[in-house]
Design a protein that fits this description.
Structural class: alpha+beta
Strand content: 5-15%
Strand order of the largest sheet: 2-3-7-6
Radius of gyration: 21 Å
Distance between the termini: 45 Å
Length: 389
């Protein structure tokens, strides 16, 4: 499929896109489905992507990264997804956790974590969602209290990806402000084997190499240096991680949508029921063209969000990142649905690899924040309309 994206990208970005696409092609959807079927992890692809410098392309050069930003990292995830083999933990480990530590971590935290996150030898998960809080971060009940020089964390988290393969989890908790008595968000690095840090796998219909977990923090004792950044800058630090999460979720969705669309277009070009291939009929061709347009528009907003974020415009990036995530989620679901419909019964077979995407594509609409909450954000922040809550 032809695309206009190269006109807006630097030669370096075009070269990165082509190189990652070649890597993804060597693995592809068959690799991913085999990994899922055998209950394994994408260790081989993760290791090769790391060796080539793709996993840490957004992290500072002085700590082993590529010195780029979200613009580069989103290209990597999008192209791997377009090849049928996306790496979900890229959203969490280098994008959220790596970014937060690079921007706000102490020198010791940066030296401890960033080189490993960049070369793939270390992985971090991210825990923010709670059973009773949902999208309302003000209802987070995981608390951190001081006990001498230590922090003690208590609470629960749900839908935390990849905790079983992560060396540590960046946990969003709340501490009491000594001046106001109000609780404020803070981020803590919790090692996987920390006493009192329990996990239970959630039984999901979603078929993916990365499993989902519920976490229980039962008086998890952490040293002072487990706190990331300034205790008084919690919200700033939190959103420094959430904006990359939305940008990368958009990349994940766009890649998935492109993969599904490419399968459908290939099928429509060759599948013959009457005299001409079915792709010659407008009832088949037009919905696929619409899906392509929607994916291209989503990428433009993702690129805008990545650029604003990389330039340090957190407020502007927040709006664009939310819009990109919304647009990409919608485009992905529609592209997958149309792809399956184009293939008819074949769209539901394992051979063509599209049926499992029906469930997977919904993730981009739901996580990390629902489309309704994004519409709330745009209503309030962009349009200035009053809140209903």
């Amino acid at each position: 499929m032809s695309t206009a994206r190269t006109a807006l990208e630097t030669e370096e970005h075009q070269a990165l896109r082509a190189a990652v696409a070649a890597l993804g092609k060597r693995y592809g959807r068959d690799y991913m489905t085999t990994v899922i079927r055998e209950g394994k992890h994408t260790d081989e692809l993760w290791a090769e992507a790391a060796k080539l410098g793709y996993l840490g392309v957004n992290l500072p050069e002085e700590y082993g990264g590529g010195g780029g930003g979200m613009a580069e990292l989103s290209i990597v995830l999008e192209e791997l997804g377009a090849a049928g083999s996306p790496l979900l933990m890229m959203i969490v480990s280098p994008a959220i956790c790596g970014t937060v530590i690079a921007r706000f971590g102490t020198e010791e935290q940066k030296r401890t974590w960033l080189p490993g996150l960049a070369d793939g030898s270390l992985t971090m998960a991210f825990g923010i969602t709670e059973p009773d809080a949902g999208s309302n971060s003000h209802r987070i009940t995981t608390t951190a209290r001081r006990d001498g020089d230590d922090w003690v964390l208590t609470g629960r988290k749900v839908f935390v990806s990849g905790v079983d393969i992560a060396d540590a989890t960046l946990i969003v908790g709340r501490t009491e402000d000594a001046r106001s008595g109000k609780l404020k968000p803070c981020l803590f690095i919790v090692p996987r084997e920390a006493p009192g840090f329990g996990r239970n796998q959630i039984d999901m219909e979603l078929h993916a190499p990365e499993q989902q977990f519920e976490l229980v923090l039962d008086d998890v004792r952490l040293p002072t240096n487990a706190l990331v950044g300034d205790e008084d800058a919690g919200l700033l630090q939190l959103f420094a991680g959430l904006n990359p999460e939305r940008i990368m979720t958009a990349a994940f969705a766009i890649g998935m949508g492109r993969f599904a669309l490419s399968r459908a277009v290939e099928y429509a070009r060759t599948r013959q029921v009457w005299k001409e291939p079915i792709g010659s009929h407008q009832a088949i061709a037009h919905p696929l063209a619409t899906a392509h347009i929607d994916l291209e528009l989503s990428r433009l907003m993702m690129q805008k969000a990545a650029r604003l974020y990389d330039e340090g415009d957190d407020i502007g990036a927040g709006e664009a990142a939310n819009m990109a995530k919304y647009a990409a989620g919608e485009a992905c679901v529609k592209a997958v649905d149309q792809a399956v419909h184009t293939l008819g019964g074949n769209g539901l077979t394992r051979e063509y690899g599209l049926a499992s995407l029906i469930t997977a594509s919904r993730v981009a609409r739901i996580a990390p924040v629902s489309r309704e909450m994004i519409l709330n954000y745009v209503s309030h922040q962009s349009l200035g309309l009053p809140k209903s809550y």
